[in-house]
Amino acid sequence: MIISQTKCVACGNCVAICPMGAIYVDHSKNRALINDDACVECGTCYRGMSTENLNPVMVRTVRNVAKFFRFRFEPEPDVCPTGAIEMNELEMPRLIRQIFSDPVVEHKSTGIKGRGTEEVKTNDVSLRVNSGEVGYTIEFGRPGVGVRFSDIQEMTRTLAAAGVTFEKNNPITHLMIDTQTGDIRTDILQEKILSAIVEIKTTIDMVERVLDIVEEVNERIDTVIAIGISTRCEDGEDNTLGPLLDSLGYYYARAKTNMGLGRITNRIEIKRAEAVAP
Amino acid sequence: MTNTLHRYGHSDSFYDDYIIFAIPSRGKNDEDCVPKLKQFLRICAKYNPCNMGNGNRGSLAPQKGLGPAAHWFRNNEPDWEKVIEGVVKAGTVSAVFASEEQAHACLKEVIAADFGISVNISTSVENARRAAQTCNIKRHSVEYALAFNDPHDHLPNSQILGLSTMCGHGMVSFNMARKMLDMVREGRRTTDQAVTTLMRLCPCGVYNPERARRLIEQACKEQK
Asked: Which of A224, A229, A259 is closest, CB to CB, to B146?
């Protein structure tokens, strides 16, 4: 992301918009600038802000007059008056920031926009998490903190050593050199992203251990973690995972609930199912 | 793609927050799914949603090339038709409801339409259980949100978190939530103006403006 220095009028509207706090106004230049190391290329400033196409010289003059008379100017807070924010062409490894941070960019590995996968949202047709199994979505960096791949690797290495199974259709798993060790590609380790989700699956007896590992590793890595933990309901009820979380003292106010309305409708999948049926 | 799992708040605070979304599964039921996704949204639009989204835009989106009058006369009306028209390929589509009755009524019609696409509801565990019972269906799977793990004290106070985390992809920054709350407190913006500004920043259309309005009003009351 870049801010055109010829167009910027230092109104400061984009400063609060940035989820990473990467934009600041340089008062010596009277222009907004981006801290490239902190920027995760999420596109919020470019896509999320509305724009006017006002003449920068005219806007600066009006602002200077208002400033002189100490008039407070109250523009719409999500508008860039001169369309100064521009999206530049990115190359690897920096491109990985945009892929993981901009929710309208689709991951080629999953075909899904955003950082995750279908998780249990399509479990009624995918059976990704089956009876007796527990799925985890371990989300790093959100809300509003960000994370570097080196920190994610710290977690994936520890989880791999504990013998968990990484979801194969997950964007982070695709970046691993070795799913047995949890090692991630070295060229991207220092890249910072808005967030990423590691997906794993275990049997129910490993829940306490996995949650302990996540908490313990989080002490060592400088970010925030949010965990989603999923299971299949039996006859519409969850009689295993919920009670276990209660007994372990976890509070879970909210859930995504798959209502079981999905079915396989793709013709090739129906034929495949018919072919294996007895 | 939407991300609605990790909204900040206690179970009771989700009484006006129901997100119903449809998601096709790649290789399983994504064939010819676009008309179904559009029909899903049309059904949702009948039940007075407070937001809808197609993964690319919500019902209120940023605009490029505004005229100067936009600072006083800005279009803040949700546009359901643009969301529906914008569905061009397989992906998640969603609708946000602030009323349990409307969410249940919508879900019943979605069930009757029998699209064969996975449908999820994101709200409190209890609300989802009640929705399944009311609509006489059995929940297939459930994903619980555990609390944020923040050993390094990065997160702001609960008022800011409540407003910010309603965009699950983090596009509503802590600073913007704080700025809008402060502007309302100082009488520089109305609550409705603050809410529409925050809502525009969420590209998936899952931001709940009714809940945001309530959170801002509560925060202003607590200050008194």
From this structure: A229
